[in-house]
Amino acid sequence: MNIHNIFIDWENGEKIVLRASDPCDAANRIISPTGATLLVEPNARKSYTSPWIQLQWQRALNMTKEAEEICVIGYSLPETDFRPRILFQLAGVNANPDKRILLIGPNANNVAGRYRKYINLPIDPIEKPWFEWLTTQA
Predict the structure, then answer these.
(1) Which of 10-19, 81-90, 103-112 has the highest mean pLDDT?
(2) Is 0.70 surpassed by the pTM of this model?
(3) 5 and 59 both lie in a single domain
């Protein structure tokens, strides 16, 4: 990936979380994703016209349609960020009562209220830091 200052933020066996700095227009300078996943941190400079980000949104849509359980880690669903709400709507999550959503983060109970405005599925808030929750997963 052609991003400045990429580093491992946390590692436990086969699970690795990568972080990167927020250089101006970094998303448009990504040559190709590594493996099947491209991790793009939320930032004001993210360009949704980047072909790699568009590819990831399409993958996220497909996975959200198929998933029985959706884990959202540390994302607060701010009112100004409409793309995730559209993703949930296009995936038809409210039409499938068998799905459930896990919200992981230190303020998950408060954040769950924002999700419940748009999503009619069971939402299970887990008030733990993401790395603590991740270490308990198989």
Answers:
(1) 103-112
(2) no
(3) yes
